Amino acid sequence: MENIIDILNSRGLVEDITNQDLNNVVNEPIAVYAGFDPTSDSLQVGNLVTVMALAHFQRCGHKVIALAGGATGMIGDPSGKSAERVLLGESQIEVNVEGIKENLSRFLDFENKDAPALIVNNIDWLQKFSFIDFLRDVGKSFRVGSMLGKESVRSRLDSDVGMSFTEFSYQLLQAYDFLHLFDTEKCVLQIGGSDQWGNITAGIDLVHKLRGGQTYGLSIPLVLDSSGQKFGKSAGNAVFLSAKKTSIYDFYQFFIRTADDKVVELLKIFTFLSLDEIAELEELVKIAPEQRAAQKRLAEEVTLMVHGENGLRIAKSATDVLFGKSMDGLQAEDLLEVFSNVPSTELQNDQVAGISALDLSVTAGLCKSKGQARRLIESGGLYVNNNRVPSLDHLISASDIIDDKLVVLRSGKRNFHLVKV
RNA sequence: GGCGGGGUACUCAAGUGGACAACGAGGGCAGACUGUAAAUCUGCUGGCUACGCCUUCCAAGGUUCGAAUCCUUGCCCCGCCA
Fold first, then answer.
1. Does the nearest atom of strand B lie within 7 Å of A256's Cβ?
2. In 3-state terms, what secondary structure has residue A351?
3. Can you give the distance from the CA of residue A144 to the C1' of nucleotide B77 in angstroms?
4. Half-sphere exposure of A157 (CA within 13 A, CB side)
5. What letter would DSSP give residue A420?
6. What CATH number has the domain spanning A4-223?
7. A406-411: strand order across its sheet
8. Which residue is the nearest neighbor of B49, CA to C1'?
9. For A226-244, what is each residue's pLDDT tens digit?
10. What is the mean pLDDT of residues A277-290?
11. B25 C1' to A236 CA distance, Å
């Protein structure tokens, strides 16, 4: 068995380890877990870093456990958050946990005979606790001093937002998760993003105090994009794994647009390509950056894993069409296929033909207001069927409606909106 | 419970009776240049029937010719003390 820690290190997936003994411990199969917050019904590309690390563990023959924070999600992890979180309802969380399972199944093998991955929900064990029992059995083992010392707590107390008791208690719950999995699954390792360090060590301390057991923590570096933002969040719009939330096309494009100086790092993290292969791609980036061979390979690999072969095919054909020349000669049917995930609006024929492009962009919902549409056109950023709208009073003619069915609006380089007639 | 500070647009943050649709920064959107990259430069960033008009500065009242700015009440947040 290959040493999993060496593999993770070689791929830049290790930020820190609580105890270097872990290097030897993993020579035997162990159980490892990572938690996922069910704040949404889909994971985001940011979560993929942890998912990939788990997948590597499984490939090396370890037992991996994905923990859905059904209970902790109701409390809200303050780590890395500057403001108190909006609490989610129980039913919403159930839905979200299901979505996350679906995402995970693309990467983790839950059917594997030797070491099937496991998914658990901490609501199953945390819910049964009464407040009194929890304080006696768990709270007793925590010192407020060390709780206050956690980065997640300190930074919030230093800010003028403060923090509620609810959020302050969060670390106890996550610590108890580790204890529970230690007891029931002999789980001795928790991995997570580097912002989870405080929560992870809290769990290790708890297991040590109550069971005398030795457990470990491994943190994964936070992946940032080249502008220093949290990876996968552009303007607050996260890139999701679920096609319902982020179209396959957008997902694919997200990776295509990776900066040159980031692409090698991302290939190591988000694909299973061998380091040799990645080195070759790195060479190509140096020789012929304009070809973006590495970016393409990255986008293909990740899209394939998340959305399957059919998803990849859709994404690529959409890309071909949209970055080809014009749309002339394309049938409405083809366009519908390509744009299947693009927002669309159905309008009557008389709401389209003879109407100004300005009004159409508003009624279709591409622009929020006439003022916004006006500014967009004035700066030359509105396109009808890939042709720039030349003036404010430009009218849509009947011939602009492809096959009498379809008009393709575009704002800027990549925001499309379909109008179905 | 007491005392003090505060709530301004997506965020941070000026403005403390008229020149305020509200400085500035970040973010975002668009354009140019490019390789669907980065950097850089430019414009925009409340709404409209648009050289003008309408609705905004936590909420509701009030003072005033005139309020984001002053007063009252309420809600929320922060800090210190108990």
1. yes
2. helix
3. 24
4. 11
5. E
6. 3.40.50.620
7. A344-346, A415-420, A406-411, A382-384, A387-388
8. A370
9. 555 566 655 446 788 888 7
10. 92
11. 19
CB of A257 within 7 Å of some strand B atom: yes
Does the domain at A248-323 match CATH 1.10.10.250? Answer given as: no
Model confidence band, residue A221 (pLDDT cutoffs 50, 70, 90): confident
CB proximity A136–strand B (7 Å threshold): no
Question: Do A353 and A411 contact (CB within 8 A), yes or no?
Answer: no
- CB-contacted nucleotides of strand B (7 Å): 27-32, 34-39, 43-50, 77-79
pLDDT of residue A226: 55
Rama region for A61: left / alpha / beta (φ>0; ψ in -120 to 50; rest)? left
pLDDT above 50 for A388: yes
User: b/e for A212-224, b at 16 or more Cβ within 10 A?
Assistant: eeebbbbbbeebe
Q: Which of A405, A11, A386 is nearest to A220 (CA)?
A: A11
- Our measurement of CA A284 to C1' B65, in angstroms, reads 74
pLDDT tens per residue, range A175-184:
999 999 999 9
The Cα A350–Cα A377 span in angstroms is 22
> Would you state the structure tokens that stand for residue A240, as one six-digit string?
């999701």
A344-420: CATH topology is 3.10.290
First to last CA, chain A: 60
Closest CA to A273 of A241, A299, A239: A299
Q: Tokens 């162990």 — which residue? A: A30
**Residue spans per domain, chain A:** 4-223, 248-323, 344-420
Residue in A184, A187, A190, A159 with CA at minimum distance from that of residue A78 = A159
Any atom of strand B under 7 A from CB of A380? yes
Classify residue A352 as exposed, middle or buried by CB count within 10 Å of its CB (0-12, 13-18, 19+).
Answer: buried
For CA atoms A248, A251, A255, A256, the dihedral sign is: positive
pTM of the model: 0.81
Find the Å distance, CA of residue A376 to C1' of nucleotide B29: 8
Cα torsion A366, A369, A372, A377: sign: positive
With 80 as the cut, is the pLDDT of residue A316 above it? yes
Determine contact, residues A225/A231, Cβ cutoff 8 Å: yes
Output the distance from A235 CA to B20 C1' rounded to whole Å: 29
